[in-house]
């Protein structure tokens, strides 16, 4: 399945369709549906129309605008866009206009892509439902009473409902893959360091990665091909060249060794388990050797993550102090200004994580919590390495459940955190993982299956994802 | 779970984090942080004395670049986003003086 982005790019490059017409179709869907879904914080209609007109001019002049020619792309609102509001769905950044573009945004525009708007998220990407937004929740386009997942719920909902052909998210503990699963689209977290984070507003710097949302595996590969690769502006960006992912996509899975992670099949809803087992059967039928795999330390991932990520966040978010940008609440002296600004600007979940992280890093607790979580991180990496001695890729659910009702977990942070139990281990290890839609649950809502691979093994991971997609479409 | 973290601990951490909390927030966070830390007991109890910590998933070392001047962000564009500006600089409330 080529997917809408590849179809649009092919049609626009051959002048069969105009980029402006494609854009207008997507803006019409936004007009029609976004009142109820609320995927977007800000629609970039004017700048998008100017870019689309430019793409059309270049095609008319015989130039090739690039592999994303005329493709509307939704940007998570924690990616900086010069002169365009970038809020992180937080009151503390409401009204801020960044003075520069994120590298991924520049690369998308350079490839002919059309940023169509900034999408809603859990404030500063902290959450699993997109309910922690200062601007109100996003709803799941498949059932408006349910959450879209999070934190990149706006991008997932925009791509799922046809408001954009592609979307960008950031994934710190599952924030691309979990909403992709809950909205029935493809969502992927690349190897740590594969995609530049210059211009991504930091949450937890040893975990954050930018990745694509798409309605097909090949569309996701297309976007990653455009975004990936070294960037001197991000010192954590990997200097090696990124493999071209689309070329090998349909090479099949014959002879590949696929392991189903036993520890991540525990405590999962029965209808989700059934779809993971169906995916394993489909891969067996396609020639893969499927067996049980074990990553014992994965069960400690959730606890380790909810110490490491808040610790890093408490440091990263110290920059919101009312001095250089964003909200300021004046006070008699500077300390008072800091505390009043931060009290007024941050929502409950952000405060909770800053508190948890500050506690985990504070004198007397550092070693017991943060230090210990970092050692557990080593154990998880070792267990993955051992599993990959026997397997090329691993398989698991993406989310333990289908999309849950709005409000059902907001009062119980721990229950909300459990949504990320299957996605967190890949972030801790820095490995790539992808969620592929694989049928529906008993409630008729989408279920995603996760394919995990060792660092920089995106090619084999995408091949397996494509085989799963073919097995369910074919 | 009792007294895992007290309201006084939470108030201390809030001061470290430069956050003003209401009484209501203080009570709620004391309970919720306690629940998350209880859940972290499984990690705290693991024997890891011979396991090195991982701070970062990449084996990258220091990254250097040529020390050459290049254009930086536009000063006016940056200052236009600040809450208060004076003479091309960020303006802040009094830093030195009597304690509040």
CATH topology of the domain at 1-44 in chain B: Histone, subunit A
What is the overall pLDDT average of chain B? 89
CATH superfamily of the domain at 1-44 in chain B: Glu-tRNAGln amidotransferase C subunit, N-terminal domain
N to C succession of SSEs of chain A: HHEHEHEHEHEEHEHEHHHHEHHEEH
Report strand % of chain B: under 5%
CATH class of the domain at 1-44 in chain B: Mainly Alpha
CATH class of the largest domain in chain A: Alpha Beta
Major sheet summary line of chain B:
2 strands, antiparallel
Biggest pleated-sheet summary of chain A: 11 strands, mixed
The CATH architecture assignment of the domain at 1-44 in chain B turns out to be Orthogonal Bundle
For this entry, what is the oligomeric state of its chains?
A: heterodimer
- Name the CATH architecture of the largest domain in chain A: Alpha-Beta Complex
Average pLDDT level of chain A = 96
The share of residues in extended strands of chain A comes to 5-15%
Number of domains of chain A: 3
The gross shape of chain B turns out to be flat
CATH superfamily of the largest domain in chain A: Amidase signature (AS) domain
């Amino acid at each position: 399945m080529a997917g809408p982005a590849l179809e649009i790019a092919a049609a626009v490059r051959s002048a069969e369709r105009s980029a402006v017409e494609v854009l207008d179709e997507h803006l019409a869907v936004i007009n029609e549906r976004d009142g109820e879904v609320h995927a977007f914080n800000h629609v970039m209609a004017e700048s998008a129309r100017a870019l689309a007109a430019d793409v059309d001019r270049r095609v008319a002049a015989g130039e090739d605008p690039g592999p994303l020619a005329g493709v509307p792309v939704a940007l998570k609102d924690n990616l900086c866009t010069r002169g365009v509001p970038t809020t992180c769905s937080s009151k503390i950044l409401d009204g801020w206009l960044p003075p520069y573009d994120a590298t991924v945004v520049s690369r998308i525009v350079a490839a002919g892509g059309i940023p169509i708007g900034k999408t809603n998220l859990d404030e500063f990407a902290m959450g699993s439902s997109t309910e922690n937004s200062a601007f109100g929740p996003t709803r799941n386009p498949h059932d408006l009473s349910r959450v879209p997942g999070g934190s990149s719920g706006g991008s997932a909902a925009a791509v799922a409902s046809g408001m954009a052909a592609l979307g960008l998210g950031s994934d710190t503990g599952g924030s691309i893959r979990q909403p992709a699963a809950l909205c029935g689209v493809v969502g992927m977290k690349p190897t740590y360091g594969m995609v530049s984070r210059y211009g991504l507003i930091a949450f937890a710097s040893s975990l954050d990665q930018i990745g694509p949302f798409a309605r097909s595996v090949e569309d996701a590969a297309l976007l990653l091909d455009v975004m990936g690769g070294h960037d001197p502006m991000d010192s954590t960006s990997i200097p090696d060249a990124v493999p071209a992912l689309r070329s090998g996509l349909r090479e099949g899975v014959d002879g590949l060794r696929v392991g189903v992670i036993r520890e991540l099949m525990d405590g999962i809803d029965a209808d989700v388990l059934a779809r993971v087992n169906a995916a394993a059967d489909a891969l067996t039928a396609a020639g893969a050797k499927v067996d049980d795999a074990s990553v014992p330390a994965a069960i400690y991932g959730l606890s380790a993550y909810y110490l490491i990520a808040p610790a890093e966040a408490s440091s990263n978010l110290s920059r919101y102090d009312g001095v250089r940008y964003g909200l300021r609440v004046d006070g008699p002296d500077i300390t008072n200004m800091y505390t009043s600004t931060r009290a007024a600007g941050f929502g409950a979940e952000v405060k909770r994580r800053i508190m948890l992280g500050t506690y985990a890093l504070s004198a007397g607790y550092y070693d017991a919590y943060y230090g210990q979580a970092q050692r557990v991180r080593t154990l998880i990496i070792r267990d993955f390495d051992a599993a990959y001695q026997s397997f090329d890729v691993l398989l698991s659910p993406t989310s333990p459940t289908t999309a849950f009702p709005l409000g059902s977990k907001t009062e119980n942070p721990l229950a909300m955190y459990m949504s990320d139990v299957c996605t967190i281990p890949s972030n801790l290890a820095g490995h790539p993982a992808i969620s592929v839609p694989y049928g529906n649950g008993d409630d008729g809502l989408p279920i995603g299956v996760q394919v995990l691979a060792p660092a920089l093994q995106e090619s084999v991971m995408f091949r397996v994802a494509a085989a799963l997609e073919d097995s369910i479409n074919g | 779970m009792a007294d895992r973290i007290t309201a006084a601990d939470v108030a201390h951490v809030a001061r470290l984090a430069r956050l003003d909390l209401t009484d209501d927030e203080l009570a709620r966070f004391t309970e919720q942080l306690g629940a998350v830390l209880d859940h972290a007991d499984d990690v705290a109890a693991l024997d890891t004395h011979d396991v090195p910590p991982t701070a970062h998933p990449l084996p990258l070392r220091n990254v250097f670049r040529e020390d050459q001047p290049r254009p930086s962000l536009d000063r006016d564009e940056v200052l236009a986003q600040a809450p208060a500006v004076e003479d091309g600089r960020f303006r802040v409330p009094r830093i030195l003086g009597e304690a509040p």
